[in-house]
Amino acid sequence: MTAHTPPTPPFRDPQLPFAKRIDDLLSRLTPEEKVSFLHQFAPAVERLGIAAFRTGQEALHGVAWMGPATVFPQAVGLGATWNTDLVRRVGEAVSKEVRAMRARDERVGLNVWSPTVNLLRHPLWGRNEEGYSEDPRLTSAIATAYTHGLRGDHPTYWRTAPVLKHWLAHNNETGRDVTSSSVRPRVLHEYDLRAFRGCVEAGAVAGVMPAYNLVNGRPNHVSPYLREQLRAWTDEELLVCSDAGAPSNLVDSEHYFDTHEEATAAALVAGVDSFTDHGTDSSQIVARVEGALEQGLLTRADVDAAVRRQLSVRFRLGEFDPHYDPHAGTGEFDSPAHRTLAGEAAEQAIVLLRNDGVLPLAADTRIAVVGLLADECKLDWYSGTLLHRSTPLEGLYERFGAERVEFAEGVDRVLLKTSAGTFLKVPTAPEATDEVRGAEGALDPALLAGRTDLPPLTTDATGTELALVDWGEGVLTLRAPDGRYLSVAEDGYLRASADQPGGWVVQETFRLEPQANADGDTHGNSHGNGHLLLHLGTGRPVCVAADGVRVAGPDEKNPEVVEVIVVESGEDAVTRVTAGADVVVVVAGNDPHINGRETEDRTTLRLPAHQERLLAAARAANARTVLALVSAYPYAIEPGPLSAVLWTAHGGQAAGTALARVLAGDVSPAGRLPQTWYADDADLPDLLDYDVIGARQTYLYFEGTPLFPFGHGLSYASFSYADLAVRVEDGTARVSCTVTNTGDLTADEVAQLYTRAVDPSVTRPRRELLDHRRVTLAPGASAELSFDVPLSAFAFWDVAQGRWRLESGPYDLLVGASSTDVRLRTTVTLEGEPSAPRPVRRRGLEAADFDEQSGVEIADRTKVSGDAVTPVAGGTGELLYRACDFGTGAGTTGVTVTVAGSGTVELSLDGGPTLATLTVAASTPGPYDYVTVDAALTAGGVHDLRLGLRGPLRLAHVGFSG
């Protein structure tokens, strides 16, 4: 008798289209199994042979959080390369490492949450390091390249499935789960959506992750834009993964819904497909979905739609076709090619901001290297663990020889004296062995961080000299002579037990708080006598106990008062090593875990005062001073007294070697600034002002003089531009020019094409990037560059029409080396649509479609969709709508406003007197309970309409009759 072989179910048949296979699999899943798939950690379905699946694997600039991996430059550094081919290759390398790591560790996920395409609108944003640029087109180009690399080039199966972060208009950490970004329609379409749209339309994106914040009063996790915009851009099934904990925020912190069942249902209906909440525990999300189904807030079809989108990603990743998936069981990890690529990326990310001729350095130059980051290779929150490490000091030793390089970190060396007259003492580390330190002698952070079996600090008559590093705003780290940072573990004791500051809550930062003398005076200087040593991770002061030094308990009343005795100041150390040098290289910048990171915005553009003092000491000792800024964001500095200034983001494992090669001239720098560097804090708008047009933000609208402009970057070579030609045909502007290397060494140039509307009817960018090209040219070589720009790139979002419109008229085309270094220009006249008045008598006005505003913000019209406008904090606000057509003669005889809340709306024309006042007689029951209020208004012809809003009301619509 022949054994019967069960037929292969259609979802296992690789010859069928994915859509049919998903239909079949959905039909086989039980309702309970489908609901279980909605959590980030979807369980296995053993009866169908389906494995467990997890959405989410961080891979911003290398595989993160899963141990050793190749670490590439931070995202803002990749943006500074302006090199889409390079970034695509980085994405390809990262995805290969994901696959290789997945083959040996099933915890590594193939659904990667990367890249971050939030625009770098404001340089004080704590997560500046995660974005690519302040410009939407450059961001989209770099992000698209990275996603293409992550996806791979197989036509059917993806190497990894990238999810874009963070949808939408997210640029603040302060109150990020409760603040609302007020985004007018033009900013929404021309700025924030544009970066996402280009990536999605390029076809290499698996989905998006909504951001924590609200936009126009509505949480991103219930945003109608997921349906109205995102999913309208492509026919592909896009997966929407919530950010961690955000589903619960809808109730717990935002109070947008009364129950978690309502919130979960609203998010699912809006388009969220995977809920990242409560870690690996899926029970609460499952219970909320089941509760929403029982209450009729959801249908089984809603669940099916979300599960379908998840399965679409899993099929594309080859999960159900392991024998056909070209990526299954393969990968490349820490290969020579990946190491070389990390070095290439680090070199291309370096931006030369200023140079008076001191660079490049001759081979026989005697160099003094100073600064807090001179012998550091910093990691950030989304870094992998370093397999290889290169600091600027190590790179200079290697390139110039240790005998030509002197080093001083420039930190204050201190003793901390207790009230009993003893000193804090770091016990000898039992870890200082070859086994723990590893082959290269470096402390192993995996073996040191957070350990409680190390002996805590004690006190004795001599103590231990500590390196006190001041990172600004009074935030300090303390380090033992062998390099271990003082840290506090869960048991509350101080130990020298961390290789670097880090973690979600940093346990290696402290503050010295001055204490009053007997006469009541306080010592405000950071190193004066009488301070509490406050541990910032716990918020508690340090005390000395019989069994060691620890943080005080919640009820302890007598924390230790310490005296800070400076053994050697940082400035003295700098002076000691710089006087005899030919040139001084000061390496300054930030620690990515301190004073500016996820959950914490910066407060100033200034360098920390301690680093400014070190820089001043170096300049005083040697006029030939080079500042190398290694940072996740821009600074406001004074470049004039400096011989040269370079900037690079934290460059990953090859950062130090790359910097040394650029300083030596082995590589000509060609990085370009991906965002404006402002000269002063006063140039910045409020961090929460998202109206880039009204607040004149970014290079697009900024009317001041920047410290360094968008696109800026110098070279050791020189380049000429010639032969600008423009041809407009078939809906495209074809722009070409010739770039020639007129220098004496091979170098890269980044040619940038901008446009400017010469005589626009509305506020348009002062100049706007259309395209760019990074090219390598030998001395004397030329390259003809061509840019094909669709005429749609010259359009703007016309709020009067509610759509994109190309305006007829002249447009400048500008080609050069930065947004201000323009070498060639011409003007073309484009045929588009003429401007027309708003037909307000026929269509009325949506309140948010204003041309100008002051004192107002956009709010949610309902919890589901629509916008309204409200005065900030219930005060007064003004709205201007230009060129409103009220009809011929006395065409309009009445006005109606749709409002909620309480207050008045005052209407005037052309800046004249108030013609109508509409008052809400009694406050409406809730913010979404709208009423209509009428008034007489006699008007005809075309006028500018001005509305004054008074009081806590929401204005949704204005209508006219007659």
UniProtKB/TrEMBL annotation:
GO BP, sorted A to Z: arabinan catabolic process; xylan catabolic process
PROSITE patterns according to UniProt: CBM6
InterPro entries in the record: Actin-crosslinking, BXL, CBM6, Cellulose-bd_IV, Fn3-like, Galactose-bd-like_sf, GH, Glyco_hydro_3_C
CDD domains documented for this protein: beta-trefoil_FSCN_BglX-like
Top-level division of the source organism's lineage: Bacteria
Gene Ontology terms, MF aspect: alpha-L-arabinofuranosidase activity; beta-glucosidase activity; carbohydrate binding; xylan 1,4-beta-xylosidase activity
Keywords: Hydrolase, Signal
Domain CBM6 residue range list: 843-961
Pfam families: CBM_6, Fn3-like, Glyco_hydro_3, Glyco_hydro_3_C
Similarity comment text for this entry: Belongs to the glycosyl hydrolase 3 family.
Function description: Catalyzes the hydrolysis of a non-reducing terminal alpha-L-arabinopyranosidic linkage in ginsenoside Rb2 (alpha-L-arabinopyranosyl-(1->6)-alpha-D-glucopyranosyl) to release alpha-D-glucopyranosyl (Rd). It is not able to hydrolyze alpha-L-arabinofuranosyl-(1->6)-alpha-D-glucopyranosyl (Rc).
Entry protein name: Exo-alpha-(1->6)-L-arabinopyranosidase
Taxonomic lineage: Bacteria, Bacillati, Actinomycetota, Actinomycetes, Kitasatosporales
